[in-house]
């Protein structure tokens, strides 16, 4: 049997990290078993419709490499893949359920339903429908329909017995049928609810594994009863625990947690995000942490899924992102960094490629770039405290004498290359009989005006050029003289 999974996002206008993780696991479950990964857009909730939202879904799948095999944009045997284009069939199947005695028309007004809610003793927002319309006679129903009265179609739940289903992550789950609400299948606007559409679509799209958030776990018995009512085979269920912000709260865009797009805008790489979220609820059989999508496709296994919720740890993602940046080849990194470098560095005489090489080892996210390279453009205001460095064994006095000694040596270099700068400074260290750091730290500090910088003294001097380097060293000397006088 071919494994078929589907990603069924509602176009909400952003890609929630939890949803992206669901998509990734759906993709991996399919691909690790040579199966198909299908994209279905669930746009039947007209109130939630957001312009441009489907583009975000396509873009995310594209950027992350989760390539679907069937979907609205590429077609497939079981389309249409947009729910609003499948409207006719939902009503037909709802009516079939009515015929079979598993569903019924309900003409209750909103006002009546509201009174049901307020009569709930516990004050719960949710209350069970009282089955007022279940006993309507055929004539009454026809009369109401002929009069054009708005209606919904409800699922008729069994009132006795239990329903059990198996979930791959959560195990066997059993509910008392008497607790199940006669949920709405078709809404008054003629659209199906998610609760109905997901069953009809998953069946006709031949989905073998339904992978989704655990918030759907409590409704799954109702879906199973629908499969039974139609005499359809239910899929394998894989419900995933929520991705959490902390021990008590789910990750939520409304509460300021980042979406996939936010992370990309903040300089995270799609590959790193995919790698990180793969580990949010799934553990490989070894302790490996860095996985390309291809590697995940090979080693992903449903048995590695966990039912304990995982906490989204931005620090861990940031670390992983840094690893991805470090491991890129220099050319690809430059392409990635170029725009940000150009925005941060206006001085067009500086060799951005050389800067990129230094930067690549230092970076955790692309958005660190401006902060780390600003000083190339203009020397920042800085305090001479920066010259004091315990490990380098420098004090302001040592820094001043080192800079004074370095100035003529650097002035003497005619061919300003990193090698020549290196040789000149290292032979000065010898002549002065001091430690490397006692010369190089002051020079680096004078050139950058920063407590840390991508690149050391020689690399910075090379990139800044002779004139600018000498100018900055003179400024350093002056600042130190002022402090020490
Ligand atoms: N449209 C639903 C959502 O975005 C999909 C749930 C499912 O995968 O069945 O939450």
What can you see in these coordinates?
There is one protein chain. With 485 residues, the protein is mainly alpha-helical. The chain has 19 helices and eleven strands. 45% of the residues lie in helices and 9% in strands. Strands 3-4-7 form a three-stranded antiparallel beta sheet. Strands 1-2 form a two-stranded parallel sheet. It has a two-stranded antiparallel ribbon with strand order 5-6. The longest helix has 19 residues, at 466-484. Glutamic acid (GLU) is lined by residues 8-10, 42, 194, 198, 212.
Descriptive key words:
single chain, 485 residues, three-stranded antiparallel sheet, binds glutamic acid
What is the element string, with H for helices and E for strands? EHEHHEHHEEEEHEHEEHHHEHHHHHHHHH
- Number of separate strands: 11
Helix segment count?
19
Structural category: mainly alpha
**Poorly predicted spans:** none
């Amino acid at each position: 049997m071919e494994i078929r999974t589907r990603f069924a996002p509602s176009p909400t206008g952003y890609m929630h990290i939890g949803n992206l993780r669901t998509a990734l696991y759906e993709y991996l479950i399919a691909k690790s078993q040579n199966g198909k990964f299908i994209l279905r857009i669930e746009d039947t909730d007209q109130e939630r419709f957001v312009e441009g939202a489907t583009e975000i879904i396509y873009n995310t799948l594209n950027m992350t490499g989760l390539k679907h095999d069937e979907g609205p944009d590429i077609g497939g045997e079981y389309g249409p893949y947009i729910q609003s284009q499948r409207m006719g069939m939902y009503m037909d199947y709802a009516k079939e359920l009515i015929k079979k005695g598993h569903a019924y028309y309900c003409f209750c007004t909103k006002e009546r339903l509201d009174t049901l809610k307020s009569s709930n003793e516990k004050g719960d927002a949710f209350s069970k429908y009282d089955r007022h319309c279940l006993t309507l006679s055929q004539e009454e129903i026809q009369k109401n329909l002929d009069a054009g009265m708005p209606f919904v179609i409800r699922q008729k739940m069994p009132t006795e017995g239990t329903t059990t289903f198996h979930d791959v992550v959560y195990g066997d789950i059993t509910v008392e049928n008497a607790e199940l609400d006669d949920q709405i299948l078709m809404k008054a606007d003629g659209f199906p609810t998610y609760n109905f559409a997901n069953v009809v679509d998953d069946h006709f799209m031949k989905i073998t594994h339904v992978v989704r958030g655990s918030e759907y776990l409590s409704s799954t018995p109702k879906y199973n009863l629908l499969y039974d009512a139609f005499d359809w085979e239910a899929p394998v269920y894989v419900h995933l625990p929520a991705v959490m912000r902390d021990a008590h709260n789910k990750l939520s865009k409304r509460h300021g947690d980042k979406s996939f797009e936010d992370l990309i805008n903040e300089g995270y790489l799609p590959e790193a995000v995919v790698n990180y979220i793969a580990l949010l609820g799934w553990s490989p059989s070894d302790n490996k942490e860095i996985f390309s999508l291809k590697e995940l496709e090979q080693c992903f296994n449903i048995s590695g899924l966990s039912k304990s919720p995982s906490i989204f740890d931005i620090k861990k993602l940031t670390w992983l992102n840094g690893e991805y940046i470090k491991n890129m080849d220099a050319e690809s990194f430059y392409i990635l960094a170029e725009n940000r470098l150009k925005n941060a560095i206006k001085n067009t005489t500086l060799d951005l490629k050389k800067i990129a090489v230094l930067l690549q080892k230092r970076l955790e996210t692309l958005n660190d770039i401006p902060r780390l390279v600003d000083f190339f453009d203009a020397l920042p205001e800085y305090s001479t405290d920066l010259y004091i460095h315990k490990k380098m064994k420098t004090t302001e006095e040592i820094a001043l004498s080192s800079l004074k000694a370095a100035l003529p040596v650097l002035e003497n270099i005619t061919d300003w290359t990193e090698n020549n700068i290196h040789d000149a400074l290292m032979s000065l260290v010898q002549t002065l009989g001091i430690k490397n750091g006692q010369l190089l730290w002051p020079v680096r500090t004078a050139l950058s005006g920063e407590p840390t910088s991508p690149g050391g003294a020689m690399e910075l001097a090379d990139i800044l050029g002779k004139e600018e380097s000498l100018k900055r060293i003179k400024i350093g000397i002056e600042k130190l003289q002022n402090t020490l006088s």
